[in-house]
Structure formats: C-alpha cells, structure tokens
Amino acid sequence: MSLGRILINLLAMILILLGLSPYALILLLAFSEKPTSIQGFTIDNFAFIATGKLLQDPRYSHIYPNIHAVLVNTLFLALGVSFLVTLLSSMTGYALSRYPVPGRRAILATVLALHGIPVIILLIGLYFVLRFIGLFNTLIGVILAKVVLDLPLGIWIMKNFYDNLPWDIEIASIVDGAGRFTTWLRIMLPLAKPGIAALAVLEFISGWGEFILVYTLVTSNTNWTLSMVIRGLIGEMGSVNLNLLAALSIFYLIPVLIFFIATQKYLLRIAFGGVRG
Amino acid sequence: MVEIVLEKLTKIFGKNVIAVRDLDLVIKDKEFMVLLGPSGCGKTTTLYMIAGIYKPTRGNIYFDSKLMNDVEPKDRNIGMVFQNYALYPHMSVFDNIAYPLKIKKLPKQEIVKRVRYVAEMLKIDHLLDRKPSQLSGGQQQRVALARAIAKHPDVFLMDEPLSNLDAKIRVEIRAELKNLQKKLGITTIYVTHDQAEAMSLADRVAIMNSGSLEQVATPEELYSKPASLFVASFIGSVPANIIRVEIDEDYKAFLRDREIAIPRELIEAIKVSGSKIPGIFYIMVRPEDVSLYSPGESDLVGEVFSIEYLGKDLVYHIKIHEDLTIRAYTSRENLLNSSKVGVKINWKKAKIYREDGKLIV
To answer: Chain B within 8 Å of A175 (Cβ-Cβ)?
Structure first.
C-alpha cells in the first residue's frame, strides 16, 4: 500500500474511534463502581432491571416511578405509533396512488410540505389541542400527536411503494369479482409487505425515542417514558449518578439496536425507494 | 352464453383523444369474435369497456338486451385473460384459480372440485402447489386461462394472451384455445394485432383502425372481399398488391402514363358506382392471383427485385417502376431465370377501390 492509502486509512480509523468514543464511555461508565468516574466493574447499576426501582436505597426509591411501568409506557407509545402510522399510511398511500381524487396533486404537495415542519413549532398548539380534547397528560394523547407528525412521511413512502406495483393484477382482481377493499386487503397489502414492515420498524424506533412530546404533554410521572426518566436523573437532587445514568441509557438503547440490525435490509430497500420482488 | 351488442360506443380520453368512435357491433352467442387492428386502433379500449374497466363516453353496451353501462366489472360475470397473465404472485396456482370462486363464496368442496377439473383440462394439475414465478410462460398462460374458466363466466375477454409466448407454443395453444372455446360454448372476444392469429381463431373478425370499425366478417370474406384498402393490405400474410391507376374521361386506365387493359366488367362497375371520372382508383390483387410470363406476353413488365423463399413456394418482388413493386406468389417449379418478367393479373379476383379506399366491386 502506498503512503497515501495508509494515511487515509489511519485517518478513517481515528474518525471512527472518535465517533464511537461516547458510546464506549457510556458502556464503561455503566459498569463502573464509582458514580462519576470509570473504576472497577460491577453490574449493580443494572439492578433496576430486576427490581424496577431506579434507586435501590429504600429512602429514595419512591422518588422515581417503577421502571417496569415506565418500560410498559415506552412500549405502549412505540407500538401505538407504529401500528397507527402503518395502518393509516397503508390505506392512504393506496388511495392516493390509485384513485383519481380531485386535488390529488395538491394533497400530495401538502403532505410533503407538512413533513418539513419542525416539531417545536407545533408544541404550543398541541398543548392546547390536547387540553381541549381532554387527552393532556395521557400517553394516548402523545401517541396521537406523534402519529399526526409522522403520517406525512408514512403516506409518502407508502404511496411511492404502491406506485411501483403493477396495476393489471388489481384489474384482474376486480374482474374476478373482488371490490376495491377486498382487492386492497387480499392482493395489494401482501405485495406491499416489505414496505409496510419497514415503515412499522421505522415508526417503532421513532416512537421509542420520543422525548420532546412526552416532556411537553405529560406531567405526572406515572405516565413517563424511559426518555423522561433519563432526563429526570440529570441534575436532580444535587447528586450525579453518572453510572446509573449510563446503565439506563444502555438499557434504553438496546432494543433499538436489536431492531435495527434485524431489519436493516428492509430499511435500506425503503431508502432506495425501489420495490422489486 | 350471452349475446353482446355495442351501440355507437365511443370513448374519449381527456379532451380530445378519441380512442373509439361510434362503434356498432354485435357479438353472437357462443361466437369467437376477434378484434383485430394495429396498435392504438382502439381494440383494447373496446375490450376494457365491455369488461367495465373503462366507462363509455357515449353509447351503450348490452349483454342479452340488458344495459350494462353502469354495471361494475365484478357483477358482469366475465372471465378475463391478460397479455401478461396478471397472476397473483404471492399465491399458489391453486389459490390463483380459486380466487374468484372464494370471492363468490362458493363452498369449499365445490371450489376444490372446480379447480381440479379445470387444471386437469388444461394439463396443469401437477402444478397446483407452485407459485407463478416457478412456472414457464406457457404454464402461466394456462393458469390465467384456468382462472378465467373456473368462474364459469358468461363471456371470455382476452387481451393478446398469446403475444408473450414463443412462436411454437403459440401455435399449439392457439389450437387448444379454439377447441376449448367450441367445447365450452362461451361467447369470446379476443384482441390481437396479429392477422394470422385472427384468421385462424375467429368465427368472425372485426377489423379496427383509428377507433373505427373497418369491416366485420368471416375470415374468408375478409380475405376475398376486403371492404377497404386498409383491410386489404392488413389481411394476408403476404401483403396484397395495391396498384394506383388513373382513369380518364374515355374510361381508359393509365398506370403512370402507360395505358393498361382493364376488363369491361370492371369499367361498367365503375360507371355504375357513379364515381368521379376522371379520377384515381386502386386495383387490389393478391399475390397468388398474379402470374408471371416472359416480357413480351404482357402489358406490365418489370425487373425481378428480389425473391423470397418460403419453403415450398416463392414470392417474387417485381419492380414495375420506382413507386410500384408487385408481389407474385408462385410455386417453386416456376423459377424464372431472367431478370425481366411480364406480369398478368387475374382480373376475376381483382378488386377496385375508390380514392378514399372504399370498394366498388
């Protein structure tokens, strides 16, 4: 290898290490015995997984909500978002792809534009809307808000997916006697499975990691998600439990990593927009 | 088991794309009707209107005197076969054929019975568990056919179903199809651009051009009595000869300033038809009705431009002048050695057309 190649490879490795270092730090911290530095090795920090209590000390353990309950909340949020976005997108995408709805182009353009709006702008509006409906401080309210924000992307993805499916199979199905809904259910949906699966995973990850909506729209800590617990740990009570924080973060991270690695090939397919096979 | 009547059927796409124009056609019960024509002539659009996939812009469609314009495809009881089969890729062959039956909510035993019966009839019963992607083109075609037949429809609609197959398989399946249709006795409408296919399959052929019906007749009649120049030149594996002549006030015919002899009967027919004289007319004569002689023996003399060998027979391309090449179809024994030949027309079989393409005699 030439000197140039060696230098570039070296540079690449340095950059990778730099990028990975925060994760390495967290990993080391999670197993550390001391709260503020990396020393020793212990799995005590992960005790909350078994006991459900973030702080094992009985004097403080009631300050934070039960981790098991919080985990259930986070799962509820992630699955709820995933399910609703997938369901609605798969139907809307189909309608926009196949039906000559008047103003279809306008609807599509609007959908695309909505996708670009940053969440922060809508927070105050969402606060008032949820209060008005009476869903403030509920996970369902957060789910609905998140679904609404993620729908534009979902619809766009599904519509493009459907656009690439051949239409003569649909015609065959209609001639065979199936109505539009049966055709969609029995023929188009199975063919769109890869796209739907990818969307479901994407939305699960999106819901799992949601912070700002929960932070704004949920006040009582029985409705907290894991992201809120992490935030709650930072700078509270004057003491800094970095190792506990790190352990919690790793715990939060694992499901996402697993999901992502398991479904990587589906997500890549979506990214390149094609539907083959 | 249905008679289909199309009445002034018209389809306009957008503002001004007239795909089908005032089509009047009757398809008799149990008939094998072929819609023939070049790409873009409106035959597939017509088929889709009969299926209910397109709504007619104007005109009416009747199934046995029942007005069908607003009836959904699923309620028309039709079986359709597409050019690229349109099989459901995620279902097995069995499920593909059973799909319309499941939609109709037939009892399970009946479904199994019908699917097996049809699969056996089309010789695909050993493939019932496979997926479409595991089948050859010919096999996929049969599955598509089976799916249409299993429904026991009133009408078969076929959109160029054989055009994706190898030539050899095509000929085989053609024969099977014809036989099958006769056996089942189901009214069939078949779309194709291949005139040989149309001639071999049809009870009657409806030739279309640019959205309009040119002629509807049996293959026999279409061949021997084409109603227009378009039909004459479209039908026939070896294209017909179309000779342009000018006829002056004395009813003398000139081919590019050289007079040629035209039999009295034809001249009489032109007089009777009231066509404008002097005027331009076209003589249509099929290659097999043209015979070759030595140059001295006939009016029309030309040079042998090329010779096509068709196995037992030959087609001579004879250049009379730069705008006119006459094709002569003859058997191999008549191989000529010289390059200059005389051409004689069998006037009994020839037809004359007016300048606008319509038949006079």
So the answer is: yes
